[in-house]
């Protein structure tokens, strides 16, 4: 699964730390999600999408091989 978190953060001009604090996780968790090393839980994915005021499908993109 790909994600657009880094792009969304850049558009909103926020750091990984700021996003992490807003959704209640560590900065390392955001780093791991951005690098596709960790798949977020459904509640966390929804929190991230809500933070950016976007549908979850526009932040997290399911690929054919997922």
TrEMBL record:
UniProt keyword S-adenosyl-L-methionine, yes or no: no
Keyword DNA-binding annotated: yes
Residues in coiled coil: none
Positions of the HTH cro/C1-type domain: 5-59
CDD domains listed in its UniProt record: HTH_XRE
Protein name as it appears in the record: Transcriptional regulator
Record InterPro entries: Cro/C1-type_HTH, Lambda_DNA-bd_dom_sf
Gene Ontology MF: a single term: DNA binding
SMART domains found in the cross-reference section: HTH_XRE
Organism: Muribaculum gordoncarteri
TM region positions: none
Alphabetical keyword list: DNA-binding
SUPFAM superfamilies for the chain: lambda repressor-like DNA-binding domains
């Amino acid at each position: 699964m790909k994600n657009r978190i880094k792009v969304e953060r850049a558009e909103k001009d926020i750091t990984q730390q700021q996003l992490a604090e807003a959704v209640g996780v560590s900065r390392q968790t955001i780093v791991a999600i951005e690098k596709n090393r960790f798949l977020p839980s459904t509640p966390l994915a929804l929190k991230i999408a809500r933070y950016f005021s976007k549908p979850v499908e526009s932040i997290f993109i399911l690929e054919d091989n997922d």
